[in-house]
Amino acid sequence: QVKWKGKDLFDLVCRTLGLRETWFFGLQYTIKDTVAWLKMDKKVLDHDVPTEEPKTFHFLAKFYPENAEEELVQEITQHLFFLQVKKQILDEKIFCPPEASVLLASYAVQAKYGDYDPNVHKRGFLAQEELLPKRVINLYQMTPEMWEERITAWYAEHRGRARDEAEMEYLKIAQDLEMYGVNYFAIRNKKGTELLLGVDALGLHIYDPDNRLTPKISFPWNEIRNISYSDKEFTIKPLDKKIDVFKFNSSKLRVNKLILQLCIGNHDLFMRRRKADSLEVQQMKAQAREEKARKQMERQRLAREKQMREEAERTRDELERRLMQLKEEATMANEALMRSEETADLLAEKAQITEEEAKLLAQKAAEAEQEMQRIKATAIRTEEEKRLMEQKVLEAEMLALKMAEESERRAKEADQLKQDLQEARESERRAKQKLLEITSKSSYTQSMNSSTTALPTDLPSFNLISESLSFDFKDTDMKRLSMEIEKEKVEYMEKSKHLQEQLNELKTEIEALKLKERETALDILHNENSSRGNSKHNTIKKVS
């Protein structure tokens, strides 16, 4: 609308996003190479905005929290800060050391892709993603595959974190970077020396132009009595009157107005943090706690269902494996039965042949006996004939004896074959019995299999009925939730040491691949600060 003020447009954007923590944000535009913010109480078209159509404004975080985890209540607020800080790191507006860049990239991947699954997230799945600053990539002799391998190794450790949790972990690490949330302005002191003024949530900081990491002097908000400007001259009056007033000049009047805006807004938020929360913030935090508890319960329910589904699938796979095993055993039993039947047939045939041979031998023995009797009856009367006859009789008797022995041996062999045939038939009976047992087991397993396979789709005993979910959080619930939050804080402090060890380990691992000649001035300054044990917060304490 032509008559709309800045607040009307800003409120419309916030309503569209569902954003209630509006005090962190603003609508930014650029005029003559200078950044400016839309004023809430002034008509949009009365601002010194570019004349071209359409008029473009950027919805961005204007002020940053001191502690993202404690101050950012809404999930949409956390998400917007995550997107902005990630872009600033990738665009190198915030300096980030290589090892921290890899860790932040792993949380960004967790926020986008969810839990790591080696079957889904295969080699090369991050090839099209912009995850690391170009400065970091150029600083090492490492291929994209090597970077992906290191990012994925950390990404796999974040299993179980939801998107909002991964984004908050990202912000908790990023807020400790030296350039996080700092707005820099070129200034000159009374002697004409070129300096940088940094404005952030903690106070005002003075830097050398070549060193944006370590301030020379810092003025915390609670130690500043007054800030004012006259034309291009800016004055900072400390609370302690014994300390000299600090004056400096900026290049443009518009820049002075922007510095004053940021100072007032950051100072107001600084004081607000140190007071009791307003009723609106208390309501938002209570709603956020309820929402967090609801999501936690939902995640636990889904985890239980997932676990039951996985157990059911494992049981089904085990039953299928057992069924296959039983089928193999049944096949083997069938083959053994067929072999037993063939053996029995062969033994029966052999026994029949042996029996016939025994009958034939018995018949021959009888014939030999008859021949002997006939020879005796017709013996030749002469002595020679008698001798010959006696010899023939003796031979006939020996032949008859041999025939009798052979007949007896054949009879024994026939008895043995009959016994073998009986044993073969007994083996056949046992094989058939085993086959019947296996067949009954298979039918039982298949019925079990069908009932188990149906389990994952229904899971009636593990579904949480919506009517049974109650979100009437009483004092005991709030106390328990507070205790859980405190427990999480303690666990986070314990993890921090492990995290630092991991960062140092990665730094040592990739140090051999670093190209020293490509180090930037900020890389060198960061390494010097790290070797001295200087961090963002203790440096500010020292120079305050």
How is this structure best described in words?
This protein is of the alpha+beta class. The protein has helices spanning 6-17, 68-71, 75-90, 98-113, 134-139, 144-155, 163-174, 253-273, 279-377, 383-453, 455-458, 475-511, 521-532, 536-543; strands spanning 25-31, 34-37, 58-61, 183-189, 194-199, 203-207, 217-220, 224-230, 233-238, 246-250. The protein is rod-shaped and about 175 Å long. Helix 9 (279-377) runs antiparallel to helix 10. The protein starts with 5 loop residues before the first helix and ends with a helix. It is built from 14 helices and 10 strands. The relative contact order is 0.08. The longest helix is centred in the middle third of the chain and has 99 residues, at 279-377. It folds into 3 domains: 4-173, Up-down Bundle (Acyl-CoA Binding Protein); 189-270, Pleckstrin-homology domain (PH domain)/Phosphotyrosine-binding domain (PTB) (PH-domain like), CATH 2.30.29.30; 279-439. The model is unreliable at 444-475 (pLDDT under 50).
What's this entry about, in short?
A 1,2-diacyl-sn-glycero-3-phospho-(1D-myo-inositol) binds at residues 39-42, 257. By secondary structure, this protein is of the alpha+beta class.
Question: In terms of topology, how is this protein built?
Answer:
Elements: H1 6-17, E1 25-31, E2 34-37, E3 58-61, H2 68-71, H3 75-90, H4 98-113, H5 134-139, H6 144-155, H7 163-174, E4 183-189, E5 194-199, E6 203-207, E7 217-220, E8 224-230, E9 233-238, E10 246-250, H8 253-273, H9 279-377, H10 383-453, H11 455-458, H12 475-511, H13 521-532, H14 536-543
Antiparallel strand pairs: 1-2, 1-3, 4-5, 4-10, 5-6, 6-7, 8-9, 9-10
Helix pairs in contact: 3-7, 4-6, 4-7, 4-12, 9-10
Subcellular location: Cell membrane
Domain FERM: 1-274
GO molecular function: actin binding
